[in-house]
Write a structure and sequence with these properties.
Blueprint lengths: L2 H18 L3 E10 L2 E5 L6 E4 L13 E8 L8 E3 H19 L3 E9 L2 E6 L2 E6 L18 E9 L6 E4 L1 H18 L5 E9 L3 E5 L4 E5 L20 E10 L4 E5 L11 H4 L5 E10 L2 E7 L2 E6 L12 H4 L5 E10 L4 E5 L7 H8 L5 E9 L3 E6 L3 E6 L9 H5 L7 E10 L4 E5 L7 H6 L7 E10 L2 E7 L2 E6 L20 E10 L4 E5 H19 L4 H23 L1
Parallel strand pairs: 13-15, 18-20
Antiparallel strand pairs: 1-2, 1-4, 2-3, 4-5, 6-7, 6-9, 7-8, 9-10, 11-12, 11-14, 12-13, 14-15, 16-17, 16-19, 17-18, 19-20, 21-22, 21-24, 22-23, 24-25, 26-27, 26-29, 27-28, 29-30
Helix pairs in contact: 9-10
Length: 562
């Protein structure tokens, strides 16, 4: 071979070697030794590549693989090859093509960092800003971790250390393509397939294929949900029905529970009033507790139906969420979608036990729990609390004065006046343990009787009359005389004896109404009757009687005026 020809071949070979460095080429696995693979790429010497770079692929001798030629010869004289670098080069090439042509590229969201997420695209790690994750702002990005998505490359630099991608751009493009078609065909009651895009406290946004709809939490299921995440996850495919559609605002409201039968339509077939039912407490509030009876059916235990004989209780101290309870159905109202439940009705009423042990009229011992402006709160056996009205404390002493004589912790005796377990009421009294002093005298009087009393006070509205035995009543101004000009309280004096007629009598209420006017009318009626009985021959006698009556009236008038 001529020298010139040899020099030409040598230069060509050198140029080829220079061109191959930094390139991705195909090679063949020659041998596998422990954790290394020997690969022939057609150079002077083979190169070794760690098997871990091919994971999870299992290599065999003779397999064809792609490697990156870093250098022709290393310190040991072998070629410096890398399969991982080859993948990176391929990835970068694909990213470059996608960036140049503005084509979507697939990647896997692998992590969360400050300001967004990281995405693995063919071995290259790219950054997905939080603002580019979705069309709508997303508070919780963890739902996207591990998912495979399509992205648009927004930015690449030559150092290969900064790649920024967008999922939002892909969504917006796909939405605009199908948005108009969907808006033109959508109607209320239509069933659609969608994908959950985002979860909020009040519901979920569902991608219907170009436009989003809101699935409110109350329309997800017939049962009560605390958060949409109890039922849905981002990326989940679901079927929904259009419940409302506003063409002007293009807002779409969706429902899931509407695809199932409403359990309230058949509730009367499932439950009856008075029936005992098992349920699980789902929520506890200040006014009661909600209990799930079955899928989609909840009832409310009002606070007043939780414990016998206790009105002011804290529901949180009686039951807790997740607790299984036995209740009694008190009311069913399908129109209002309401079931009233009783917790205490599933246990024995302590007032029933009390009624078995104590008869009306018997005496019981109690402890004063509180003294209020209305009376005493007392504690009875079996944990029963009752109220003794202040009017039932004494026959003679005023109610307010009697309240001052009691204190918390005092032991007292009471008479049982009434027992009503259904209304959770027991009537009790202290004064009933003694004989009613008014009752003795009230039993001797009747309506229409005339009685005499002593004026004890002069008031603007009438006079107060003492009947004796601590019984005092009022004669109103209009009942002081049959003559209007004499209906003046000041015409009477303290200590004066007056005769009046009983016009109203109520022994149970200790209520008595007296009238001097009625007494005067009665006296005149009797005088006229006596005059009529005298006849024509008794004119002189009647004249004498009238004269006597006039003299008596004149004397009374002069005495009052003096």
């Amino acid at each position: 071979m001529a020298l010139n020809e040899f020099q030409t071949l040598l230069e060509a070979s050198l140029r080829k070697r220079v061109n191959l460095e930094g390139q991705v080429v195909k090679g063949r696995v020659v041998s596998i030794d422990k954790d290394m693979a020997l690969i022939d790429v057609g150079l002077k010497s083979e190169g070794r590549v760690p098997l871990k770079e091919f994971a999870p692929r299992q290599l065999s001798v003779g397999d064809e693989v792609e490697v990156y030629i870093d250098r022709y010869e290393g310190r040991m004289g072998d070629a410096q090859l890398s399969h991982e670098r080859a993948r990176q080069e391929a990835s970068w090439s694909s990213l470059s093509d996608a960036f140049r042509d503005k084509k979507p590229i697939e990647g896997v969201i692998i992590g969360q960092v400050k300001g967004g997420l990281t995405v693995d695209i063919l071995g290259t790690t790219a950054f997905l800003p939080g603002s580019q994750v979705d069309i709508r702002p997303v508070k919780d990005l963890t739902h996207f971790l591990g998912t495979t998505q399509l992205f648009q490359v927004l930015k690449m630099d030559d150092s290969r250390s900064n790649v920024v991608v967008s999922r939002r751009a892909i969504l917006e493009e796909s939405r605009s393509a199908g948005r108009q078609n969907l808006l033109g065909s959508i109607e209320q009651g239509q069933r659609l397939d969608g994908v959950v895009k985002n979860l909020t406290d009040y519901g979920a946004f569902v991608d219907l294929g170009g436009i989003d709809g809101l699935l409110h939490i109350t329309d997800m299921a017939w049962k009560r949900l605390k958060h949409p995440s109890e039922l849905l996850v981002v990326g989940q495919k679901i079927q929904v029905v259009v419940t409302r559609f506003n063409k002007e605002t293009q807002r779409i409201s969706l429902g899931m529970k509407q695809l199932e039968k409403d359990p309230w339509t058949t509730i009367h077939e499932l439950y009856k009033i008075g029936e005992r039912v098992q349920g699980v407490v789902t929520n506890v509030t200040d006014y009661g507790a909600f209990v799930e009876l079955s899928e989609g059916l909840e009832g409310l235990i009002y606070v007043g139906e939780m414990v016998w004989s206790k009105k002011n209780v804290d529901p949180h101290q009686i039951v807790h969420s997740g607790q299984e309870v036995t209740t009694v159905i008190l009311e069913i109202d399908p129109a209002k979608r309401r079931v009233s439940l009783g917790l205490k009705q599933a246990t024995e009423n302590p007032l029933d036990r009390f009624a078995l042990k104590h008869e009306i009229g018997s005496t019981v011992e109690a402890e004063v729990k509180d003294v209020t402006e209305f009376g005493l709160l007392v504690g009875l056996p079996d944990g029963i609390n009752c109220t003794v009205h202040k009017n039932d404390l004494s026959w003679e002493v005023s109610p307010d004065e009697m309240l001052e004589r009691y204190s918390i912790g005092m032991k007292i005796s009471l008479k049982v006046l009434s027992i009503n377990p259904a209304k959770e009421m027991i009537g009790l009294g202290v004064k009933q343990l003694e004989v009613d002093p008014w009752g003795i005298y009230f039993s001797q009087w009747k309506k229409g009787d005339s009685i005499t009393g002593t004026v004890s006070r002069i008031l603007d509205q009438g006079i107060e009359v003492d009947l004796g035995h601590k019984m005092v009543t009022m004669i109103q101004r209009s009942d002081l005389s049959r003559d209007r000009e004499k209906q003046v309280p000041s015409l009477f004096s303290v200590g004066e004896k007056v005769e009046a007629k009983i016009v109203t009598l109520n022994p149970d209420a200790h209520f008595l109404v007296l009238s001097i006017k009625a007494q005067e009318i009665e006296d005149e009626r009797k005088a006229m009757a006596e005059y009529g009985n005298a006849g024509e021959s008794g004119h002189s006698r009647m004249g004498a009687l009238l004269g006597e009556a006039l003299e008596t009236a004149q004397e009374k008038s002069e005495k009052k005026q003096s």
